[in-house]
Amino acid sequence: MFELNYRSTGAFEPIFHSHTFYEVYYFHEGKCNYLIGDQIYNLSPGDLILMYGMTLHCPKIDPTVPYVRTIVHFDPAILRPFLELPYVLPIMQPFEQFKNYRLSLRGKEKEELERILQLMREHQQRGDKVGEGRMLLGFVDLLYFVYDRCLQPLSEQREFASDKEKSVQDVIALLEERYTDDELNMERLQQELHLSKSYLAKIFKEVTGVTIFDYVYRKRVNEAKIQFLLHPELAVTEVSLRLGFKHLAHFSRLFKQQVGVTPERYKKQLKEERATAK
Boundaries of each HTH araC/xylS-type domain copy (predicted)? Predict the structure, then answer.
């Protein structure tokens, strides 16, 4: 699986999601806070994000300005022929070690990365096997570019643009730990974070674009999808309870709203896909 969306400007629904493939995301222009797991990245043009897809993520953009990004989705399996060559470097290490990571490219580095992306797009537009092969080779070059810039470990602590973003980061970090707690509520968040419920609700929606419990429920449903994929033997009721839902009907309703099918149907689809793949 390999998919290049070059300089995409299309509208999108800002929802938290995950996927089983990896992602390279490059931010060309706009205003965007990118939430990945328990991290908030305030993006600037030239920022490149590596994503280990199973982590819940979502961009929160300012719709009043153009939002331009290039996204590559890929299955690491397509790189196997390149990773078995003599003297090859471990170009997947940044994804495997960091899981999710931002590179802030400026000046000549930014120009070089954009040239690589543009060349990949030109090969893609050929629409034939030669173009497809050269696009993939261009992507391998991109991964070498990334690997070269990830050799030095992170040495600086992340800085937040404001106290408000720091507070939202604290909320997300707590939710990452407690999202399966069936007693999770605004009162408990208020007690643990020492901020009022109304203030927490206001700044979270302002920074992320969603409510606190929309985030929680989307994370629970996303985790349910992962559990169904990795542990097909688990019953829907068991997964529901593990993820903090007191009532199966509530879980089923939210799952269908977000995924489009009931959890039972989703499990059946996964079973059919596994049978077809054999």
Answer: 169-269
DSSP tag of 24: E
Q: Write the Ramachandran bin of 7: left for phi over 0, alpha for psi from -120 to 50, otherwise beta.
A: left
CATH architecture of 174-184+205-277: Orthogonal Bundle (1.10)
* CA pair distance 90, 256, nearest whole angstrom: 40
Alpha carbons 11 and 160: distance in angstroms, whole number: 27
Q: How far apart are alpha carbons 45 and 94 in whole angstroms?
A: 21
User: Using one digit for the tens of pLDDT, what is the confidence trace for 129-186?
Assistant: 999 999 999 999 999 999 999 987 443 444 555 778 788 888 888 888 889 999 999 9
CA dist 262 and 66 (Å) reads 36
Delimit the domains of the chain by residue range.
2-149, 174-184+205-277
What CATH fold (topology level) applies to the domain 2-149?
Answer: Jelly Rolls (2.60.120)
**One-letter amino acid identity for 77?**
A
Tokens 């992320």 found at: 208
| 80: number of Cβ within 10 Å | 9
Q: Alpha carbon 75 to chain centroid distance? A: 14
53, 20 contact by CB (below 8 A)? yes
Q: How far apart are CA 115 and CA 193, in angstroms?
A: 45
Model-level pTM?
A: 0.66
Instruction: Using the Cα atoms of residue 118, residue 124, residue 126 and residue 128 in order, give the sign of their dihedral.
Output: positive
Three-state secondary-structure class, residue 181: coil
